[in-house]
Amino acid sequence: MIRTAVIPVAGLGTRFLPATKAIPKEMIPIIDKPTIQYIVEEAVESGIEHIVFITGRNKSAIANHFDYHPELETHLREKNKMDELKGVRDLVSRAHFSFVRQNEPRGLGHAVLCARHLIGKNENFAVLLGDDVIDAQVPALRQMMDVHEEKQAPVLALQKIPWEQVSKYGVVAGEHVSRSVLKLSGLVEKPKLEDAPSDLVIIGRYILSYEIFDFIEETNADGTGEIQLTNALRQYRDLYGLLFQGKRYDAGNKLDYLRATVEFALKREEFREPFSAYLKNLFPNK
Ligand code: UTP
Question: What does the mean pLDDT of the chain come to?
Answer without folding.
Answer: 94
